[in-house]
Amino acid sequence: MTRYAVISDVHANLHALNAVVRDIEGRGIEEIYFSGDIVGYGPKPNECIDIITRRCKILIAGNHDWAVVDYTDTEYFNEIAMLAIEWTREKLTDKHMDDIRAFKLFKSDPARDAMFVHATPKDPDNWDYIFSLTNAAANFQSFKQKFCFVGHSHTPVIIEHSGPGEMSTIWDKTEIRETSRYIVNVGSVGQPRDGDTRASYVLADDTNIEIIRVPYDIQKTQEEMAEAGLPARLIERLSFGH
Ligand code: ZN
Predict the structure, then answer these.
(1) Which fold has domain 4-237?
(2) Alpha carbon of 9 to ligand 1 centroid (Å)
(3) I want to staple 106 with a disulfide (CB 3.0 to 4.6 A). Which of 35, 86, 117, 224 is the partner?
(4) Segments in the chain below pLDDT 70
């Protein structure tokens, strides 16, 4: 099976997205899947929607995407995230708002035996996080495919389910076992939060899953954010990757 890439949580960071797409294309990989959150936080929402809708075989909605078009409750958004949502609403063209309205909560691709959802397969519109193996255990019962690719936490990790009650976490890459199933958090292209400032995505095929990190011009994105008048905290955090 040909290799494919899964990306997520671009958050309107165009320079990070361009760097990742360049890296994927440089490896001769054609199929890209997207696990949600094109917009929110970053300065280039329209441009990022154009690239994702053009380039990705499957794309789904994240909580920030749905927040922008009022498809989900924003009560739990913190003040800074909410400011960015409001800024994004002003900035998006009508066409790009319509693009987002068409995004579904989850999709699957039988050719890859994979499901794509932003937060969890168990309760996609509750926007929960899978932060523990206990959370993961409940979620493994909520999809039938071999792979479930998620985003949302901005922390890349591969969770392998090798038997009842048998799970392990893998932080870089792993060989795929015939009898195992996997929840793969592909990390964030545009706002990593695991202490590594580089953009994150995942490569997979029949035999391996691997988390890839790609450097990009952080300063350029920060300059665009400052120009746009986005909150300082959002600008600064890109320098630390959290
Ligand atoms: Zn996100």
Answers:
(1) Purple Acid Phosphatase; chain A, domain 2 (3.60.21)
(2) 5
(3) 117
(4) none
